[in-house]
Amino acid sequence: MTVATQSPRQAARTPSRGARRPGRGRRLVGRLLPLAPALLLLAVFFAGPLLWSVYTAFTDMALSGSAAVHFTGLTNFRRMFSDPSFVQSLELTVLFVVGSAVIGQNCLGLLLALLLRGRRQVIRTSITGLVIGAWVVPEVVAGFAWYAFLYKTGTLNSILGHFGLSQNWLYTTPMLAVILANTWRGTAFSMLVYSAALSDVPPELLEAAAVDGASGWARLRYVTLPLIRRAIVSNLMLITLQTLASFGLIYVMTGGGPGTASSTTPLYMYQQAFQFYQLGYGTAMALVLLVLGALFSLIYLRLIKLEDA
Amino acid sequence: MQASTRVMVAATTMILGAGGLAGCSSSASSAGSKTVTVAYEEFGDFTQLNTQMQLVKTQYEKAHPGYTVKLEPIQAAENDYYTKLTLMNRSASTAPDVMYEDTFLVNSDIQAGYLAPLDSYLSTWSDWSQFTASAKTAAVGSDGKTYGVPMGTDTRALYYNKTLFQQAGIALPWAPKTWDDVLAAARTIKAKLPGVTPINVYSGKGSGEGATMQGLEMLLYGTNNELYDATTKKWTPSTTGMLDSLGFIKTIYTTGLAPDAQDALNPNFGTTVATDLIPNNKLAIDLDGSWVTGNWSSTGAKPWPAWSSTMGVAPMPTQNGQDPGSTSMSGGWVLSVGSHSANKQAAFDLVSLAENKANSLNYDIIASQIAERADVASDPKYLAANPLLGFFTGLVKVTHFRPAYPVYPQISDQIQVAMESVMTGQSSPSSAMSGLAGQVSSIAGAANVASGS
């Protein structure tokens, strides 16, 4: 779109090439000036805290106990990777992201979108409404609803009690519990993204493939999925970053427990920074989480080639 | 406020970032020395302090014409309240003049330079002599100066259900002299009353600081050892007392005397105990804090008018009945003056007004606090307010305070880990203790830890 609007102007400008330079500089200032407030705000409220947190990660800054802040180099990072609880929290985070975002929300969202394609309006509206309901519920409320459902005296156990399977699911299977809850909550987002993407797939292509004798699976694998791969990548990136930082849901359901069995990195980070007052150590973990997010994005870009063949 | 639920905590956590920003925008003492800002906690069912501060503000502004009191109630549960207060203190422009401080964090904040010493003001304040000896030491820094005036404290003891005790044939009033007496009663309950949990001692990470303070420290400080040796200034994690305390936890949790570990490790277990297990006669003995009865008042979380005739109390005995025969742990809160305050005299005037006899009496009654002033403790109105206040106030004589050092929260967390590994049978008390000692060394530095006893 940008290319299309600019080319005529450039063409018009070409004859007066010699006189262009000073005019262009003034024009550039004129164009940037309206942007200045936005840039300033970004610098103060976005870049500022970001740089500050990078700096903090290399210090021993504490919430209380010592007023002085020392630059400690890589100490925080060395300590982190020799801390088994932190390494465990990273593993749990990866498990949580892969389980609830990549497999749960992403696949379930795609499945729902595929199933709803071409259905009657009534069915579409009611199903979509139901799924979005889970998404609209505030995180803390969702966490408490799942807590009430899975807890020892909760709904699930009242039902399972008849079969003798009653147990405290938050104690026996804490990671599975939070993964299920997060899948339940986040599926609506993926479903919406994929519904929009699927409506852009030309029906003629699918019909042509069907005429050629392609099975339902083959049409999905060779026609639909390649056409929506951009949506897949952006969806995966968005839900991964969201899930990496997920805190409230787990905090409400298990508090990271029992023990540290569901203590993902954001929970461990909160504990170190705000309960043990080690701000520097906590922000260093945030940096590691940032790198983890970047790694996930790289993997997605690798696996799904975006360039048109 | 101790029983605030996890959900509320999470809700506040989520707005923590916003709260930090709000802290930045609030104007502060530097605006003029005629304004006194007061920061304190107001959260959930803990609204009593806010009521009290509104009252103090009216009184102060009447007594000091031209001055304005600016109240800054912070909406957060305990951990988050402290985080927010510390964030405010980090900058001189947002630091409050007067703040409501937890005693066990006072030392950290002195080191960080957030608090002002009050000795010169206290020496001319006649009411200071009314404060008990332990109250006077509650906010003393390592430099020997006093940094806060205590508002009220709490103690811990054994609650027991008289109805269940009678059914089990245990003589009343119950007065255990040693740990073995406590265990014997629990075993009798177990044998005579199936379906009743004999004893609850908080344990494990789920109960957080409650497990450390109401659980392990109530045991440990009744042995011949403590957690920190004030004379050598070293942490003492590996002692016979620690081993025996962990052994006690192991005994009750692995022989069916304590609640099921699955339940006990639930973060909301404290609420379950106070609002379900005790009022419904499902728990015979509970080692808990003086504030628990607040749940059963007509305005509490679980109104239970029969509590005063059903529940008995007994001091927690020392391990073998050694002197002084019983033990307790105390927390408590003080009012402190911020080191950034532009008019410290005005700030201290507010503290002394808020803690004069009439105001202390009113606050200690509405917030079920244990009085820190002798004249309040002996006031008939105070003693009539709650039938157990006299008992819990008496425990102040044998009470202990936690080692108030910046690393304490981390060490407390490791104590909970050790308790949890023992109660679930994952490790023996001795291996849990050596694990704890290793962790304490890496947290506090090996030079600050005593090696074995």
What does this structure look like?
The complex is a heterodimer of chains A (309) and B (453). Chain A is mostly helical and 309 residues long. Chain A folds into 2 domains: 2-57, no CATH class; 82-303, MetI-like (MetI-like fold, Orthogonal Bundle), CATH 1.10.3720. Chain A is 74% helix and 0% strand. Chain A has helices at residues 2-13, 20-32, 36-57, 75-81, 84-116, 121-136, 139-150, 155-160, 169-172, 174-199, 203-211, 216-227, 229-244, 248-253, 265-275, 279-303. In chain A, helix 3 packs across helix 16 (279-303), helix 5 (84-116) packs parallel to helix 10 (174-199) and helix 6 crosses helix 10. Chain A is globular and about 75 Å long. Chain B is an alpha/beta fold. Chain B folds into 2 domains: 6-153 and 333-387, D-Maltodextrin-Binding Protein, domain 2; 156-329 and 407-448, 3-Layer(aba) Sandwich (D-Maltodextrin-Binding Protein, domain 2). Chain B is built from 21 helices and 14 strands. Chain B has helices spanning 6-14, 16-25, 48-63, 78-89, 103-111, 119-122, 133-137, 162-167, 179-192, 209-220, 240-254, 261-264, 269-277, 307-310, 344-354, 357-366, 374-377, 380-385, 389-394, 408-423, 429-444, and strands at residues 35-41, 68-74, 98-102, 149-152, 156-161, 197-200, 228-229, 234-235, 283-289, 311-314, 316-317, 326-330, 333-337, 399-401. In chain B, the strands form 4 sheets. A 5-stranded mixed β-sheet of chain B has the order 2-1-3-13-4. In chain B, strands 6-9-5-10 form a 4-stranded mixed β-sheet. In chain B, strands 11-12-14 form a 3-stranded mixed β-sheet, covered by helices on one side. In chain B, helix 11 crosses helix 20, helix 11 crosses helix 21 (429-444) and helix 20 (408-423) runs antiparallel to helix 21. Chain B is globular, with a radius of gyration of 22 Å. The interface between A and B is medium-sized, with 30 and 36 residues.
